Amino acid sequence: MTSISTHVLDTAAGKPAAGVRVELFHEGELVAAGLTDADGRIGDLAEVEPGVYRLAFHPSSPFFRRVELELELAEGHYHVPLLLAPYSCATYRGS
Fold first, then answer.
1. What structural domains and CATH numbers belong to the chain?
2. Can you give the three-state secondary structure of the chain, one letter per residue?
3. Which residues on neighbouring strands pair with residue 62, listed in sequence order?
4. How many CB atoms lie within 10 A of CB 23?
5. What does the alpha-carbon distance between residue 58 and residue 48 come to, in Å, rounded to a whole number?
6. Each residue's pLDDT tens digit in the chain (95 positions)?
7. pTM (two decimals)
8. Tally of CA atoms within 13 A in the half-sphere of 48 that contains its CB
């Protein structure tokens, strides 16, 4: 099985981004969704089969309405953080 978690950090404010909606799609279908907690985390977004997924973040931002990543997930755990500022963002595979 494959599991996925995430974390959104507001780098402009220097703190976690709470209340960000995050959605996980597989083959165009929504398979999981949640809101980041007070620490900016969704510790257990989904447990899925390996495959290609789209992870969509909906931050409160003056510029970004949606930040979407396409991910190829094998077996194991994936942590995908989003670092967000008003006019830039970055991501990486966390641990």
1. 2-91 (2.60.40.180)
2. CEEEEEEEEECCCCEECCCCEEEEEECCEEEEEEECCCCCEEEEEEEECCEEEEEEEECCCCCCCCEEEEEEECCEEEEEEEEEECCEEEECCEC
3. none
4. 17
5. 21
6. 899 999 999 999 999 999 999 999 999 999 999 999 999 999 999 999 999 999 999 999 999 999 999 999 999 999 999 999 999 999 999 88
7. 0.94
8. 25
**Residues 81, 59: Cα–Cα separation, whole Å:** 13
8 A C-beta contact, residue 31 and residue 42: no
CA 27 to chain centroid, in Å, comes to: 17
